[in-house]
Specification:
50 residues; 5-stranded antiparallel β-sheet; 1 helix; 5 strands
Length: 50
């Protein structure tokens, strides 16, 4: 966890929890979002940031 990611609309964020079928991500400008892992993977919603 604590992986840095980027969402095309919500900007930079940090993965704070990974559950069976969900990711909890804290976005700097949007706050916490609970995302479906399946949809994130299918739609390529998040990109890893170094």
């Amino acid at each position: 966890m604590d992986d840095k990611v980027e969402h095309r609309e919500w900007g930079l964020g940090t993965v704070v929890a990974v559950e069976d079928d969900r990711l909890r991500v804290f976005f700097d400008n949007e706050g916490y979002k609970l995302l479906s892992r399946e949809i994130v993977e299918q739609e390529e919603l998040l990109r890893a940031v170094a």
